[in-house]
Amino acid sequence: MKKTGDEFFDSKEFQLLYLRYEEAESNGHPLFFDVEELIDIADYFNFIGEKAKAMLLIDEACQRFPHATLPNIFLFREAIARNDLNEAKQILSRVVDRTDPEYLLAVGELYLAQDKTDDAERVFNRFYDMLPDDEKDHGAIDIAEIYFTYAKPKMVFKWLNGLQDKETKEVGAMVAKVNFLMGNYQDCKKAAMTLLDKNPYDALMWTLLANTQNMLDDNEEALSSAEFAIAINPDLADAICAKANALFKLDNMKEAKLWYERYLELVPNDACSLLYYGMILNNLEQYPQAIEHLNDALDETLSTDLDNKQLLRSIRQELTYAESRQLIREGRKEEARCRFEEHLSYCDDELDPRFRWAFLLM
Description:
The protein is mainly α. Helices cover 73% and strands 0% of the residues.
């Protein structure tokens, strides 16, 4: 099995469980595992990017334990990730034990997905109050993680400030991530490097450091940090994306193209990465391919309810450029001129210098 940098997955306990799983698989034996064990193995596969294997185990768990909390919570989070709230609600309805802490966490997250923070906080407080004293810090961190996912840093700090022990690795990692979310990149970098001094095999923290260094334009350092993460976990999508971003900022377009392609195989609907990939294709004068991927980026961005005006503008600018250049290449100058004028209708800042040159070609 792969070294992950995750404390549980790298533990002796999980390694022994995984050896039992491998032995059963290789010998064609039925998977005689309880639901918690099946979920742990599925979580491992999900963590290392082997989604198909994870889903096979979840299907197995759902067939054997159709009303169990954990497999349904796994499917719930998959539905939430797709922004399919109706499916998420339907999955939660299958859980029988409505007092299970994991169920309550999911209900709170469902409220957050609907932007109902007060309702979410009410459920989270209920979850927290039912925990024994020696588990309350862990529960508070779980709640803070969910708030972080929904970009609510004030609520993250509210729950972290109530911890009895604020010096754990989990708290340090959360503080680093929240600083990144708030744009405090130097503080994030400092926190991440402190944690990596203690655990240099934490692929997720190397990835966070790489993303932070990218934001600080420390692009060579970002590339190095991303490569450390990939060496630990070769299929970690965020690390692959961080490496592609660093190469892009270093103007190494051919290498960046290869790493964006690898990332988009794992995460095909990431509009930002589709945009950067389209920009690279424009740079390499591969306009038909650029048009295809920029249209994908546009469709993906328009399909969300998020306020993405800046992203939409950037996608449309790149798409207009690609289409104009392709039309010029085909000798269709009047159509290219019309496409160029369309660009002017939504470009409210200084004209992209590439368009001045393209206009002269018309």
